[in-house]
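Record 1 of the preview.
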Amino acid sequence: MKSSKTSGQASSGHTERPSPWLRLLPGISPKRRGFILAWWGFALTFGGMRLLTWLIHIDVAGVGDVQAGGVHLHHYVWGILLLAVVGAASLAERSARARAWLGLAYGVGLALVVDEAALLISLEDVYWDTEGGVSIALAIAVIAVAGSVLAVTRGRRASRNDQDDEG
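->
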C-alpha cells in the first residue's frame, strides 16, 4: 500500500524534512529501525538511570529524588506512564517516522520499569541491596537477548514496500 505523500511533499504541498533516523540508520527498514531504537533507548536509559541513582545515593550536590507532596516517585512510575502513551500512540500512528520515535520511547519506558523490577517484585526499596541485583541481571539479559536477535537478523534490508513508507 503506497503512502499518500509523494515526492517528499505533504498533502498541504509543503516539503517535508527527512527523518533524522534515515541519516543515522541508512538502509535499515522502517519496521526494524523502531526495534533498533528501542534497544538503544533501553540500554542508554538503563545506564543513565544507574548513574543518576548512584549520584543521588552518594549525595552529589544538586542531584536528588523526584518527590510529589513529600512522597518519593520511583522512576518506574515514569516508565509505566511512558509505556501507556507509547501503546496508545501505536494504536493510531503507523508512519515510519512515528514508528522510530515510538520505538525509542518504548525502550526508554521499558528501561525505567526494568531498572526497578526488584522493587516491584519484593514491594520494598531494595535498589541498593543484594536483592536489587535482580534488576541489573534482568536488564543485562534484555540488552543481550535483544542485541543478539538484532545482530542475527541484521542481513534483512528494507523492502520496496518499506521504502515507500519512509518519512
